[in-house]
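User: We ran a pulldown and think these components assemble together. Before we commit to crystallization trials, I'd like a predicted model of the whole complex to look at. Sequences follow.
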Amino acid sequence: MYVAVKGGEQAIANAHALLASRGRGDQSQPAITPEQVREQLGVLVSRVMTEGSVYDPDLAARAISQAQGDALEAVTLMRTYRTTLPRFGTTIAIDTAGLPSERRVSATFKEIPGGQQLGATFDYTHRLLADPTEPLDLEAAVEEDEPMPRVTDLLGAGALLEPVTNHAEGEDPDPDPADLTREPTVFPMSRAERMQALARGDEGFLLGIGYSTLRGYGGTHPFVGEVRVGEVEVEFVPPELGYPVSIGRIEVTECQMVAQFVGSSEVPPMFTRGYGLAFGRSERKAMSMSLVDRSMRWEELGERKVAPANDEEFVVEHADAVAATGFVEHLKLPHYVDFQAELVLIRGIQEEIRERQAEATESEPELEEVSR
Amino acid sequence: MSEATAQEAEEIAMRQRAAGVLAGASTAELAECWNAWPNRPEVEYLRGPESGLVMVQGRIGGSGDRFNLGEATVVRATALVRGGGLATECVGTSYVLGSDPDHAGLAAVFQALLADPGQRDLVLQQVIEPLQSRQATVDAGSRAQARATTVNFFTVARENSGGVEEDDE
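Assistant: Here's a predicted model for the assembly, 541 residues in total across the polymer chains.
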């Protein structure tokens, strides 16, 4: 039961002033601007946009500054802000193969059309602390761009990989996905609904669950078919125009995970898919998401449910950092009345036990005499 | 296709191209074009500029079923322009990703000017084409930098491995 507490206004105002002062730190240091955060902490900005579920690097940078670098606090600020805005509509689904990627690697094939392009990556760095340096001079390639077809399309063409969709005849070949932000969550979910939940989900949680599938808790050994990072054009059909227009570009990270499948009496053995997609440069998130997506497809693929990663209700209900933070962190708010009630109860029980014990000791001497 | 619909399709294609270029340009670039505009007409905003969201959808596996990836901020505006060198009043609408009302406001003005037969070529020459080629130069630069990171991995046969054990990992 929640009972309002009153008072403390001055203390709360002072606490917020102290928070702001701690956030500002040493005043002899220049303050960080949101523009600097946007430009120089791009990976954190990506995470806040992805989990905040709103693409806007400027807003995410502001949120990060305000939250003093607390990613989950910044995510919460983004989620709160989005509720103040009307939704104009839904975009045309983005085409992740549409624009040349900045980064595109495959762990399954060495030679792929378009080549392995490392892009801006932490891979192959030495993970040693170094002095901050000015950006190095970048060499630019002289060779022409080559188209980069999806690696999974190459595999799929030989029927070695399951088809990307599997709708029975008569079913809608392009169903409208339900929107978790507008409709109540009902289990079991469609794969599309799960993807939305995972896209909003906490990177750390999904990383842990994804990792568990690799360590034997219900997974198979997968391969990264392809990871792409790049900008894609966002197209939208304004109702007043009636035709699609480009409204700008967003950066996304995509991961196509390729996993094993033993096959059944009807389906020959072939590789299966897990998919991950996230805003900005969010490779760890996209990879974790694709692992968890694959492991939650056990039923569809006729596998057994053996691990936490297979349990969509468990994963989806605990992946949202805003919900998790809200519930865990509310425990520190005043619970005086709740606690008082339990205190009275426990005191009563203890009192009762003591009384019974006292009664028992009063009658004990006689027993002792008898036993002697 | 009749002549009328062919013309209509051409008109839509031109507007789509302009919308993409105006959305891709920065507010500063658009403001520069607008400040340099000769004989500027009077602008009245019929709607906005106002902020909102669009739900961005992706496709599972890149090309499968659609799913809701997350929202993106958008600003939109509908501008009416009159006076200046315009024959009639014209209306233009813009939708632009982000939270900058001026970006959508200026984009809507140029869309409105495109609707005027006397101004169209000027907008295309003075605004759309230069911004498009500037964007193309920036894109080509970042692509060339990205292409410079193309890697050729080669697998090395394990020592003492003969035939069967030889393994590409």
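Chain B touches chain A through 55 residues (CB under 8 Å). That may be worth checking against your pulldown data before setting up trials.

User: Thanks, that helps.
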